[in-house]
Amino acid sequence: MEIRGKNIIVVGLGRSGVGAANLLSELGAYVTVTDRKPKEELRDFTESLNHSVRLALESHPENLFLSADMIVISPGVPLDILPISKAKEKGISILGELELAYQIASNQSLRPYSGVSKVSNQIRFLAITGTNGKSTTTTLLNLMLKKAGFRTILGGNIGNALTDEIYKALSILRHTHLDYIVAEVSSFQLESTRDFRPKGAVILNITPDHLDRYHSLDEYYYTKTRIFENQKEDDFLLLNADDPETINLASEKLKARNEKPRIFYFSRKKEVDGIYFKDGQIYCNFPDSSISCRHSSLINADEIKIKGVHNLENAMAASAMALLAGSPVEAIRNSVREFIGLEHRLELVREIGGVRYFNDSKGTNVGAVVKSLESFKNSIILIAGGRDKAGDFSLLRDLVREKVKTLVLIGEASEKIKKSLGDLTETVTAKDLREAINISHGIAKKGDIVLLSPACASFDMFIDFEDRGRQFKKIVMELT
């Protein structure tokens, strides 16, 4: 892939757009970023761009696309917008930001614009996808690898673009090497991959999500499996043995392939080749690999600081990936013992009068809320709602009936959720998050859980899920 001297268009000016534009500019391309939003709304991003990057805002000029040597698409941009479709017809190369990062990291002969040495030796990618749990697993895996002494880059859908991390690491890459790029990978990023081939990949789970973007569940599910589409026999794929959808999809897609990755599993419910949970212990079992463990105890589950059944799964997945990547057992144990989790993921905010308040603002889909509700026994006051992503809230009925004392609804999806779940428990509607918290605080008794786990996107009332979670924490900390 030649970059220097090429006319490259970056579509979408967010974190990924800034990272891609700056990296391409540094490597000698003539870069233009286009976005439909006005400059005033994009000021935080435009101020982060290299001075040589040009801007074409408030529209997507067709002539700009058709004159490009290459087009790089940010994850939030749909692939079917008209200028991209016309560029495809003309045969112009179109890459996603993830694919661009992979191509640059994998190109051993690529030289930076300044002309000094090579940018990198080939760096092995470890890629994590799934509907829920990606950020926790990715962060924990990176911690394990660093404790083992590996040089890593952490990025992707986790909040810092891979291209930006590679751009910031260029000076290091010119003089030494990196061992792994640890990447959280979303379905939006996988849509636009071509040659992306991670050394190791994991699918944590697949449940309905983003149906406001995809035409069908099958389309969304299929996109997730692109993570292993180019893997070969010396690569590995880790799957959740307890998730039938994941297993069925992977089996269906792999059965016709001549070259397949080595497959391992993690499970809370049964013994598998990989990592499994049994009688309060996490066991390591890799009989047909270079890892010397066969039904060996890895760690006591009580030593895991991050709580919840989903976090048990995340810890097992990260441990399996780290072992397969060459981390010693002690580095994995120490990482699991010290990792306290991520903000907005079942985060304990405060306890007031025996009532605990949890911020699970990252619970933006029904599947995530299922995992969160399963993590508590009962007597939950659940704050939910926001912008609907075409979620099927009826999947929560059994858990709401069993565990939710009161349902407090906010946002655009309030009525839809009420119709689906309101007959199961006391249900009230609040005008905003502050009122929802005040209502919850007023009815909560000692031993209750107040849980913000919205099952929806945040964009009807907040900048993003982080903004929603931080506002929740601020209001809770003000309670008396």
Descriptive notes:
- This protein is an alpha/beta fold and 480 residues long.
- The protein has 3 domains: 7-97, Rossmann fold (3-Layer(aba) Sandwich); 123-338, Mur-like, catalytic domain (UDP-N-acetylmuramoyl-L-alanine:D-glutamate ligase, 3-Layer(aba) Sandwich), CATH 3.40.1190; 347-478, Mur ligase, C-terminal domain (Protein-Tyrosine Phosphatase, Chain A), CATH 3.90.190.
- The chain contains 18 helices and 20 strands.
- It has a 9-stranded mixed β-sheet with strand order 7-8-6-9-10-11-12-13-14, with helices on both faces.
- Strand 2 (30-35), helix 2 (43-46) and strand 3 form a beta-alpha-beta unit.
Task: Please describe the structure with a list of short key phrases separated by commas or semicolons.
480 residues; alpha/beta; Rossmann fold; UDP-N-acetylmuramoyl-L-alanine:D-glutamate ligase; Protein-Tyrosine Phosphatase, Chain A; 9-stranded mixed beta sheet; 6-stranded mixed beta sheet; 20 strands
Topology summary:
Layout: E1 7-11, H1 15-26, E2 30-35, H2 43-46, E3 54-57, H3 62-66, E4 70-73, H4 82-89, E5 93-96, H5 97-106, E6 124-129, H6 134-147, E7 152-156, H7 162-168, H8 170-173, E8 180-184, H9 187-190, E9 200-203, H10 217-225, E10 236-240, H11 244-254, E11 262-267, E12 274-278, E13 281-285, E14 296-300, H12 309-324, H13 329-338, E15 347-352, E16 355-359, H14 366-374, E17 380-384, H15 397-403, E18 404-409, H16 414-421, E19 426-429, H17 433-443, E20 449-452, H18 465-478
Parallel strand pairs: 1-2, 1-4, 2-3, 4-5, 6-8, 6-9, 7-8, 9-10, 10-11, 11-12, 16-20, 17-18, 17-20, 18-19
Antiparallel strand pairs: 12-13, 13-14, 15-16
